[in-house]
Amino acid sequence: MNNTAPPGSEPNILLDVKDLKTYFYTEDGVVQAVNGVDFAIREGQVMGLVGESGCGKSVTSLSIMRLLGGSGKIVEGEVWLRDRNLATLPEEEMVKLRGGALSMIFQQPTSCLNPIFRVGDQVAEVLIQHQGMTKEQAWNRAVEMLARVGIPDAGRRAKSFPHEISGGQAQRVMIAMALSCLPDLLIADEPTTALDVTIQAQILELMRRMQTEMGTTILLITHDLGVIAEMCDHVAVMYAGLIVEYTDVNTLFEDPLHPYTEGLMAAIPVLGDVRDSLAVIPGTVPDLINLPPGCKFAPRCPYAREVCSQEAPPLIEAKPGHKVRCWILHPQTSAQWAGYTKTDWRFTGEEVFAQPAAATGGTDVS
Amino acid sequence: MTTAAQSVTLKGLAQEEKTESQARIIFRRFRRHRLAVISLILVSLIFLVSLLAPVLTPFERDAIDLSSKSRPGPPGTIDMEGRTHYLGVDHLGRDLFTRVLYAARVSMSIAVLVVLISETFGALVGAIAGYYGGLVDLAISRVIEFMLTIPSLPLLLILSAIFLRSDTVLPLPGFLSRFLSALLLAPEREVQKVVMLVLVLVFFGWLSAARLMRGMALSLSKQDFVEALRAAGASDARIIFRHIIPNGIAPILVSASLALGGVIVTESALSFLGLGVQDPTPTWGNMLATSQSYMFQHPWLPLVPGVFLVIVSIGFNFIGDGLRDALDPRLKR
Questions:
Q1: Distance set, CA A149 to CA A137, A220, A335 (Å)
Q2: Stated pTM of the model
Q3: Of the partner residues A67, A108, A111, the one whose CB lies closest to the CB of residue B231
Q4: Best of B20, B22, B138, B224 to disrupt the A interface by mutation (most A CBs within 10 Å)?
Q5: Cβ distance of A98 and B233 shorter than 8 Å
């Protein structure tokens, strides 16, 4: 996708995910966590993948890394990193890519470090493994990297154990480790979710800086639209294992087309805007084992018509560079919605919680 | 309110404490367990003295002295040349002090070898079972459980009867067999028997280590850092050897030191029953065995090796206790 731009005007495509489907085979049934995801990231860009918990954004990243564990399987689709299809690459090749060309940082930085080794040794280990450095070279380079990600007194800090450093510092260590082998693609899976707000800002600033310095391409996964606004060039909004909207970051905030994105935007509390209740999207995320037919968002969509619950809409390019998966914007069906008015998404508590008794409602999108 | 100078020194102190290495923290905690420290000193002393045996006693280990009138002779027996047998002589006139020291070499070497091999093997198998889980774990765990249901002593008797009485020659590398031969002061043929005995004891020895490590690996493999390691391109082998096993090593160390005491007793039991190391190479077990027929008239004969056996096996247990406390991360300071 996004191949419409004339060659030369934009950087080459680094990662191209085509119709990725990842299912988990559990005792309760097949969980269709990722249900046909398409997106592409160009070199040097930051792409955001946003959605609420359980929409499949983490599974998408783990599918790219091929770290799905026992029950998860990529059942369909291709994941092209330059000229290699990661979906079918032999495991030995993947082991070489991980930590080298492909690296990843996680949500819980402290628990991602081995508690019994010094942090410097853990950064050095990656270098020894991927770049064939000697122990001493690797240690020196590790200290250099730690200093570069803004760890003060890096020479001494490198000798600390993970429990002796704060969460923010641990995330810096993880970033140093992830970037030490100059990866082509860095996948950041909710890198700031576990950190407090001031540290969050510092870490985002650091990622931004490292990204410009090293030209790393980043796939940023988050449920925080604020993080998206701050960091990304392009954004894909995910819902129930599908990308429902894909565009550049400015367009997304100025002109969200999909009702789900619209709801997410409305749910952001605005400073100074006094309200009795926060705007929420009614209902909950569908059960990924028994997905509804038709549009996955239809049960929660205030604009839903008959067609929505019957047939799933395709992802179409509604405006140049702006893709959306919604019947409202599909040329064949848009006539049905002629002259509809947009809702203000301020549902009251009863409306939200009335129908499904078990529904907890709301989203964690801030 | 603290003054600037005070806060600076406080900061300095805190940092010094931080840079204290894990090993030193563990050592400091271990030192607080008095019985363990005493045991460690005693056990090391016994081993050291046993290594120095040729210097410490004028007697040959197997020198038979039939000239002595009182055989077995009580402690303090003086021989024809006027030399004192501090712990007496046995029925062949061999000096008991000398023999009990050399026996310490043999018994403790066997124990160390058995524990080293079985804990290493057990930890490895356990780590593989716990890390991979699924069918691998199922297979390994069932084998371990099956072996644990077998009463070990009868089977050990059968195994040692088969292997130690046969003339099978193990393909030992030359340096190993020469080293053991020098350490145990035994001919290489005897070394073969010792190694077979070690292997027989390892046969049951690895089970508890494997179970311990399996549990540790099972919980460790679910932790975030293992996922992060995989994302950083670490292979399964690297994760198991460099990360899982070092993380789970503490309980293995404790079980190893407890096992040392157990193995010494088991080896003695086998030797006592005539299936372990054979006379003239002394072990505490076969010394007890040879003293059987004289023990009522000459009680020091079983007492001498018996006391050593008790001290060392209890000692290893206390060391294990001390290590457990020292390595327990929940006990701070």
A1: 18, 18, 53
A2: 0.79
A3: A67
A4: B224
A5: yes
Between CA A331 and CA B242 the distance in angstroms is 58
Q: How far apart are CA A163 and CA B229, in angstroms?
A: 18
- CATH number at B124 reads 1.10.3720.10
Segment A141-159, tens digit of pLDDT: 999 999 999 999 999 999 9
Is the minimum CB–CB distance between A71 and chain B shorter than 8 Å?
Answer: no
Under the banding of pLDDT at 50, 70 and 90, the label for residue B6 is very low
A-B contacts (CB, under 8 Å) = 65
Of B225, B234, B238, the CB nearest to A111: B225
Which of residues B67 and A23 earns the better pLDDT score?
A23
Closest residue in chain B to residue A64, using alpha carbons only: B231
Do A111 and B231 lie within an 8 Å CB cutoff? no
Express each pLDDT in B167-197 by its tens digit: 777 778 888 888 888 888 777 777 888 888 8
Note whether residue B254 is domain-resident: yes
Residues spanned by the domain of B221: 39-327
Domain membership flag for residue B44: yes
Mean pLDDT to the nearest integer, B43-55: 88
Find out whether B102 and B282 touch, Cβ atoms under 8 Å.
yes
Mean pLDDT on B200-212 = 91
Name the minimum distance, in Å, from the CA of A179 to any CA of chain B. Answer: 10
Closest CA to B315 of B45, B20, B6: B45
Q: Among residues A253, A273, A275, A272, which one has the least CA distance to residue A264?
A: A253
User: What is the number of domains present in chain B?
Assistant: 1
Distance CA A222, CA A347 (A): 25
Contact assessment for residue A342 and residue A330, using Cβ atoms and an 8 Å cutoff: no
Nearest 5°: CA angle at B144, between B142 and B145?
Answer: 65
Residue A317: DSSP 8-state: E
Query: Hey, are the CB atoms on A111 and B232 less than 8 Å from each other?
Result: no
Residue B332 lies in a domain: no
Within-domain flag for B306: yes
Instruction: Tell me how far apart the alpha carbons of residues A295 and A52 are, in angstroms, rounded to a whole number.
Output: 17
Q: Within the 136-155 window of chain A, which residues sit less than 8 Å (CB to CB) from chain B?
A: none
- State which residues of chain A have pLDDT below 70: 1-9, 275, 347-366
Instruction: Kindly provide the ipTM of the predicted complex, given to two decimals.
Output: 0.79
What distance in Å separates residue A92's CA from the closest CA in chain B? 9
pLDDT at B41 over 90: yes
Query: Of A98-112, B26-40, B69-83, which range is least confident?
Result: B69-83
Answer whether A108 touches B (CB < 8 Å): yes
- Reported confidence tier of residue B275, pLDDT bands at 50, 70, 90: confident
Question: For residue range B121-165, what is the model confidence (pLDDT) as tens digits?
Answer: 999 999 999 999 989 999 999 999 999 998 888 888 888 778 776
